[in-house]
Design goal:
Largest sheet: 2 strands, antiparallel
Number of strands: 2
Bound molecules: zinc ion
Structural class: mainly alpha
Distance between the termini: 48 Å
Strand content: under 5%
Length: 272
C-alpha cells in the first residue's frame, strides 16, 4: 500500500476530529471538559481547515439561535441548497460559482484571508463575536482570532507540504482541504435539506438525521438529534455511527476529558 493512503486516513481522521470534537462539541457547545493542553491540540487541529475558532463558533452559535429562521447564516429554507453548502461564504445563491468554490479546496482559506483584510479595514463588523464572550477570555482563542494568524497557519501548512512532497505534497494538502471543507459544509446543506434523511425529533427547524452521511462527517450527520439536544456530547442518540462520540468516550476513559453531557434520553439510568 502506498504510504500516502494511511497518511491520508490518519490526517483526515485527526483534522476531522479537530472540527467535530474540538470546534463543534467542545468549543461551541461545551459538551465535555478537558485540560488546556487537550483543548489547545483539538483547537489547532480544527484551525487547519476551519479558520479562527471565534469566527467558527460565533457563526455556529448564531445558526442554533436562529435555526432556519431569519438571521441563520446558512439555512437552505429560503436560499437554496447551494447557499447552505458554501454560497453563504461567497455571498451567492448561484449553483455554478458555489460548485467551483466547493471544488477549489483552498477557497475557504482565500475567504479567511479576505475576511481578515476586511477586519483590518474595519469594513466587516463581526456581530456574531458577541456570542463568543467565553472564548475571548482565552489567550489562545484571542491569538488565533488576530487578523493574519490563520492565513499564516495555512502558509505554514503549504510550506510543510512542499518540503515533504513538493508539488504532490501540495496536491495532497489540497485534497485534504477539499474533503474537510465539504464534509463540514454538508452538515449545513444536506442535513438541513428536506429531501434527505428523516426528522424523528420535533425541533421547529429543518434539521435532519442523514445516516449515509454519518461516516464522512464523523457522526455530525445525526443533525436532528443535535438540534434537539445541542449540548449532547453524543449525536448518534439512537445508536447510529458516531465516531466523534467514541473518541470523546476514549478521551474520558484515559483521563484526558471528563463530564460528557448527555440528555436524559441517552443516560443509562433513564432507560431502566
Ligand atoms: Zn444545523
Ligand atoms: Zn451545533
Amino acid at each position: 500500500m502506498p504510504p500516502w493512503i494511511p497518511a491520508s486516513i490518519v490526517a483526515l481522521g485527526l483534522l476531522g476530529l479537530g472540527n467535530t470534537v474540538g470546534y463543534h462539541r467542545l468549543l461551541t457547545h461545551r459538551a465535555f471538559v478537558t485540560g488546556l493542553t487537550v483543548r489547545a491540540v483539538l483547537t489547532m487541529l480544527g484551525a487547519v481547515a476551519g479558520g479562527s475558532p471565534v469566527v467558527w463558533v460565533g457563526l455556529h452559535r448564531l445558526h442554533h439561535a436562529r435555526s432556519d429562521g431569519e438571521g441563520d447564516p446558512h439555512s437552505p429554507r429560503d436560499s437554496g441548497f447551494a447557499w447552505a453548502h458554501a454560497g453563504w461564504i461567497l455571498g451567492t445563491r448561484r449553483p455554478l460559482p458555489v460548485l467551483l468554490f466547493a471544488l477549489s479546496g483552498f477557497g475557504q482559506q482565500a475567504m479567511i484571508a479576505l475576511h481578515d483584510l476586511r477586519r483590518l479595514r474595519g469594513t466587516n463588523p463581526p456581530v456574531w463575536r458577541d456570542l463568543c464572550g467565553d472564548l475571548m477570555k482565552e489567550p489562545l482563542m484571542r491569538a488565533l482570532d488576530t487578523p493574519g494568524v490563520m492565513p499564516a497557519w495555512f502558509l505554514g501548512q503549504l510550506a510543510v507540504a512542499w518540503a515533504v512532497g513538493g508539488g504532490w505534497g501540495i496536491a495532497w494538502l489540497w485534497a485534504v482541504h477539499l474533503a474537510l471543507t465539504n464534509s463540514s459544509w454538508a452538515v449545513n446543506s444536506v442535513a438541513h435539506w428536506p429531501r434527505f434523511g428523516r426528522q424523528p425529533r420535533p425541533t421547529g427547524d429543518d434539521s435532519r438525521d442523514v445516516p449515509w452521511l454519518a461516516l464522512v462527517t464523523l457522526g455530525e450527520a445525526w443533525h436532528n438529534a443535535h438540534h434537539r439536544h445541542p449540548r449532547s456530547a453524543r449525536h448518534g442518540l439512537d445508536g447510529g455511527l458516531d465516531p466523534s462520540w467514541r473518541v470523546i468516550q476514549a478521551l474520558c476513559a484515559v483521563g484526558l476529558a471528563r463530564q460528557p453531557w448527555l440528555p436524559k434520553e441517552a443516560r443509562p439510568a433513564s432507560k431502566a
